[in-house]
Amino acid sequence: MKHFVTFGLLLAMATPVLGQSGSNTAELKAYEAVQSRMRDMTMKPMGEPDKDFAMMMIPHHQAAIDMAKIQIQYGKDSMLIKMANDVIASQEKEIETLKSWQSRNQK
Q: Between the CA of residue 96 and those of 52, 77, 102, what are the distances in Å?
């Protein structure tokens, strides 16, 4: 459940930035690209909870990784940068685990 909180926190950090004037244009474009990909994350559940979970969590984790990379590149707060590094490490590991599970459970 920790990854839901982390993703939510990162999304909450990203959202206010998009409405601020005077922010770094490259940063804004990066966050807008992540938000655009998140809007495109609509997937049709198959009615198989385990497969649906794995399928939907991979892009969810990737969005968290993408936002964390933006924080590392543009952020200034050392605690948030450390958190972003932790998010990348944990989410990449979970994506790897989910993909491995998917390959073992294709039917």
A: 16, 29, 10
